Amino acid sequence: MRFWVGVTDKNWYQFLADRKPDEANFWQPSGTRAFRVLDPGGLFLFKLHSPDNFIVGGGYFVRYSALPASLAWEAFAEKNGVPSFEALRSRVRQYRRNDDTLDPLIGCNILAEPFFFPRSSWVPAPPGWAPNIVQGKTFDTDAADGQTLWVAVRETLEKYCPLDVLEPDPRTRYGTEYLTRGRLGQGGFRVLVTEAYERRCAITGEKTLPVLEAAHIRPYADNGPHLVRNGLLLRSDLHKLFDLGYVTVTPDLQVEVSSRLKSDWHNGREYYAYHGHPLRVQPADNSSRPAREYLRWHNEERFRP
Q1: What CATH number should be reported for the domain whose range is 2-178?
Q2: Measured between alpha carbons, how far is 42 from 62 in angstroms, rounded to an integer?
Q3: How far apart are CA 171 and CA 165, in angstroms?
Q4: What is the pLDDT of residue 83?
């Protein structure tokens, strides 16, 4: 089993440990270097900077995405490990000196179900950990140091973490089932839906990222899960109309616009142009496409015929 130990700031760790969120963004100040070490569901551990050479917690990798800091804040808010968007920008500037970009692109490593060890049970970093490692290091349980570290981490997990975060092999936790199991948080849902639709509005093809939003087909407040198959990437105005029931998508992925849009608001010409047309953008992966059961629910329970 391969897993990653990422080096992080103690303030980031402590901020999240105090809040114990359901997901976290382990961000990196540059969005130019993608993280390709782990598959979805892989174990991602946290190691503090020296002199605190300890493994102090971790989470389960969802995916990497390069996002503007503003969008990372919208998606994860305090789950970025900081109290505000200004604090996030300030932290990024500490690493990117002489860069006054108002909305810098950052690398987002999205983690599900993060866990945090109490100080008394921090796991010492492996003896061979080199002081010049600044980002992190891959370990494998097929090697002696990786197996020793995994055993120590697992013992701590068994002692302090809920049983449902444990699996014999973290790779079996999710894998491709991230698309079908409801363990994602709101931020992870937003990013996965955004990437599934290749950062384009499903109805219009719009590519301006700040105006695109991940819409739940069946709302989360109405027992709709954070699943990619329960999501559509929509331009913000279409998202609003979809939530209000003036726009829907049929189980055959055809757009329908309610006649009540015109009668209620005496307008809507632009939106009727999409009526009867198939979704302009659909996920390439069939397992990410909208599920018929959620579309049927929206057609029957939310759409205004």
Answers
A1: 2.30.130.30
A2: 8
A3: 12
A4: 98
